[in-house]
Predict the 3D structure of the following.
Amino acid sequence: MPRYAALIDGKRGAYGVVIPDLPGCTAMGKTVDEALANAAAAARAWAEVAKAEGISIPKPRAIEAVRNDPEVAAEIAGGAALSIVPVVLDSGRAKTANLSLDAGLLEAIDEAADAKGLTRSAFIASAAREKILQDG
């Protein structure tokens, strides 16, 4: 899973994120957390469009390389902060995995999945994606 360096800047109620390695990929949010979550969604959408159009997706540079980029350094000097945005891309094919879970947890998963109209697999996949994106 690639992780891209991102610049976040703004003030309370209006934050913006730019991903330097994905030209034109930006996001906004009312909070830093919302802006970063939106940046992960924007990066995923950027990569999906690039893939569909036959454009190669740039590999993320090391954080040190991004930090040393003169344009990024100028943004940081102006008050921007660096963060990391994970990009989870679907491959378009399902793969079976054998998981061992506590019986009580599995029962809770099944109840929550049923309440949301999801299969167990779809619920676990969405929960895992959310956790990965939340924790970077």
